[in-house]
Amino acid sequence: MPPRGSGARRDEIVRLATTSGLASVEELSGIFDVTASTIRRDLAQLTAEGRLARTYGGAMALSAHPETTLRQRIGEAFAAKRAIARVAAALVRPGETVLLDAGSTVGALAHELRGVPGLTVVTTGLTALGELADADGVTVHCLGGTLRPVSQGFVGPIAEASLEHVTFDRAFLGADGVTTDGGLCEAELAQTRLKELMARRASAVYVLAHADKLGRRPFHAWARLEPGWTLITDPDADAAQLAALRSSGIAVSVADIDGAA
Questions:
Q1: What CATH code would you report for 70-260?
Q2: Class of the CATH domain delimited by 6-61
Q3: For a Cys staple, 83 with which of 11, 192, 212, 255, CB 3.0–4.6 Å?
Q4: Could you tell me which of 151, 153, 152, 111 has the C-alpha nearest to residue 134?
């Protein structure tokens, strides 16, 4: 039962924003069975008290989901990322041109691609660049742009303009969260806009995301998750979430972690 009283309701709004990373006026109005104007007054009060930050259409916790650095993420779910990378690498054929997003899981894929002959790799990520810089037989291009230190990836108009001059056999994307209703979640709109542009230039699109990222919405920037794309994840992924993705037209491939040892 929703809490009674404005004070208790506002405390619960803060809790929801902190745990889910999302607090829209529409959702909160339904949860607490009050009008949208009541929720807007609550959010205004909480913002004035410094307990929430206002966003378009709602609010978010001030420090609910701070973006972790790439260095911090590299050690997370290591076995799952390695397994996902091997499944993804098996899809790539000699002589193809592939696009690699920034991120630790896609960086693990770059490592697996070092021995693919005649491969051309275009990337937005410093991790992939580092993995492939000395790989024999692999031609590497960087989209360039503005570097985001926290993710070690390039974004912005220079990266976007570079995409107009090349197409790809396959694009491999990462994400901070994946949901059926929202799509791919990232910390900034510059990241999600670039993902959508990258996907449009590829014949096949794959999303690499370990189980912990499924169903997560830690931020408020989204890229569409299109029917026909493929999600590659690990065996810990929730069966209901995978079923929902399949129902929305997303192919799902589950990596075998034991086979990646």
A1: 3.40.50.1360
A2: mainly alpha
A3: 255
A4: 111
